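Support request, please re-run this one:
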Amino acid sequence: MRFSLLSLFLYRLMFTMFYKPRVDMVAPAEADTLSDMAATALQLKAWNKTLKERCTLDDVYNRLKVAIDPVKQNTIPDNAIFMQFEAAPTGAHSYTFGMSVPLQNAPQEGTAETVLGNEEQLDLLSLTIYYNEIKKGVALKGWGIDFEDLSQTGVYGQVNAKFVKYFQELRGRRIREAQMLTYSSELTKAPVSKKQQFNPNIFICNLAAGSQPEWDGSNLSTTAGSADSKGFYSTRTHTGDYVEAIADAMVAASGTGTTSKAYLDVGNIIEAEYYVTQILKMESLADGTYIWVLPSAVAASLKDPTLTGSVGNVLMQAGDLTDGQRNIPNVLGRYGRFVFVEDSRAATLTIGGSNGSWTLKPGFVQPGGNDDRNMSPWTGSSGGANYVFEAGCILGAGGLAEWVVKDIQYAKETTEYLQNQGKAGFFLGGIQLALFDKDTPDTTAVSPAARTIVNQGSCLTLFSRRAISTLK
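Re-run finished. Output below.
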């Protein structure tokens, strides 16, 4: 057997060494391709019929709400961030709630002081919420060549889902706008026509509690500018007496050097807790905490245990929180009475103009990834100043009021014998700060203790943005 294998191996070796092909052998011809045949139109193309939608930033506010019916329950929930009212208007364009003021005057003491003639008058404040139309349309084809081309891609089957996503993202922007400017934009339009004004409660990092801007309710002047390619007024700026006070405080906090000083650190967190509880006297949630919604850039530096002043080493991690706190989307942890939540869509606020004629320009993330925020680095360099601040919010009980009169519905419009169509999604609602006040508010610039307006559920917070390269 061994001999036979060796013989076979030697035979094959000699065969390969001395074999010569026949000279008359011809290789097969190379076949023509579709291109050679000038028939590329017959080439089949495969594509995935499931369309992938471009991603957008998540919105932390989609689940931070509570629903109550003001017709059946004319009270404010004492443990909810949002007051969301879902009720038909029954012809009314507004709905009003009352708030009683605690007894405040001194008592009568001893035998010489009498109660008769010294009775204290009861006092009330009110909150009025509003709604308006919010609508969005999409152009479609009903039949014809264009309809056949588009319908087979599957895009027409996604229209309703696109409406839902759009209105969810729009709701997040409306919430951030109301947190900053009292009313979301739909309530500034006819027939409601409310006037925006910056949040009465503002905390700016690197400022002592006694140096925070005092609220001034005089009218806010707005320069809308021109609509951008998407129809949003991304260059809108605001001026006024309260703007001057806010901008002065922002500049005092940040300085005007190469880098800002208005960063969030442990010292500012402790100062904010004192300011919220002792100066603003905001109402906490049922567990005694407040939700502090932080912009992503601020949250990144706050979590870094190697950064001076961060709470990275002492932050109560999400696993140590209560079940209710762990269920908050994007929760980071807890320090003191604050539960920190990251907001990737946080607004920006940019100072323009000069001392005595400051302007403030808000920036928001609009639906569909349309980002109108000022994302350029903060700089105080001469000739290239960019005094940009990140905007967060401290939320207590009942800080925002949302009235949902009619949930999203759909309607169609057609022309040209149904060939040209439009589909619209619309709903009725409004979002605003829950501000209680007198019939005629006192608009004088005063401290929180002296003013008549009561905002016990929200505080706008402003920070400088650290460059990511300096986090480590």
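Residues 66-79 have pLDDT under 50 and may be disordered. The first strand starts at residue 67 and ends at 68.
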